[in-house]
Every structure is written in structure tokens, then in C-alpha cells.
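Throughout our pipeline, every protein is held as a single compact record rather than as scattered files. The record that follows is passed on verbatim for readers who wish to inspect the format.
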Amino acid sequence: MKTISESDFQTKCSEFVKREVLCCQSSLVEELLSKEIFSYDDIQNIYPTFDEEEIEAGVECPSCTQVVSKTDSVTGQCEDCFEDEKEPQEVFEWWAVSGWLSEKLMEAGEPILENEHGVWWGRTTTGQAIMIDGVIRGLVKRFWEASPEEALEKPITAAPDLLEALEGLVKELEPQWPIENAYLADAFCCAKEVIKKAKGE
């Protein structure tokens, strides 16, 4: 496996985020959820998943004290206790992300909101650069180890109908700029950024 310095790895993480994470839309998503335009039922992975970390020698569950061979890597609990006591993940920020990244984040157990309007990652950390998030570093590390030459060179792809819809939104709102409605302004700026990235500009 090709090695990489921490400095170079951070650069790869930064490039990865710039390419796959499109823009922050926390205020817009929260407003749409509060008005029930978006549904909480569309949020997947709102509850954490048991990740079945295998322990060869067995370990005592901190909740029920039974010795088990599989625990959750975060809580250390056995599966039964984990399912009984798990709490919803707290989402601090909502980010529009590429379809490819949303699938990988879903597999990693991250909250994902997806509906006919788009897809958003519910970020459960805040106050630091996204490239530092453990889930992002984990994804970059996994794909770097799998194929250093190809894994981080994948371009963003946008469905033609989605791209056409976003271009239509920009065309409709551009004459109204500056837009007084903060949520429409947020959507306008995000749409322009997505179009720019999708076209590789």
C-alpha cells in the first residue's frame, strides 16, 4: 500500500470535501422541516446502527454485564442493550452533498435526508472543518488505500434532470437579486455552486 504523510492526507481530505460537499443549507432544511414541507420520516440513520465490533476474547457489556463477543465500537454495549438504549443522533448542520457521497455516508451510519428535492447530510459534529470529521477521514483513507491513483479523482456527476431544474431556478431568481427572503437566497447560492461544480468550472 502506498504511504502518505499526514500533511498530504489532509490535502486529499480537503480536496475531497470541496468536490463532494456542496454547500451548507442548515437554516433552509430546518425551516422546511418545521413547516412540514420536508418530513422527518425521510431522514435515514437518525438512530445510530450497531456496528458489531468483534472481540476475540469476549468482553463484559457495561449495561447488562454479560460477556459477549460482539459489541458496538462507540458504546461498548452488546446488541440487545444498544437497541434498548440508543438515542437519536443530534444533527447540528445540514449539508447538500453529491449523490455518491450521500450513499457512502449512509453506509457509514450518518443521517441522510433524501426526497424529491434533493439529498442532505445531517452532520453530527460542528465547530471544526469538515475535512477533520472522523467519517470523512475514514472515507478518504478507505478509498486511498483501495486505489491511490483513482479513488480521489472521481468527478461529481449530476443527473441531467436535476441540473436542468437547478439551472431553471437560477434563471428565475437571478433577476430578483439581491433576494430578501433568506431561504430563497440560500437556495439560489447553493444552486449556482452545484451547477459550477457539476460542470467542473
The two ends are 33 Å apart (CA to CA).
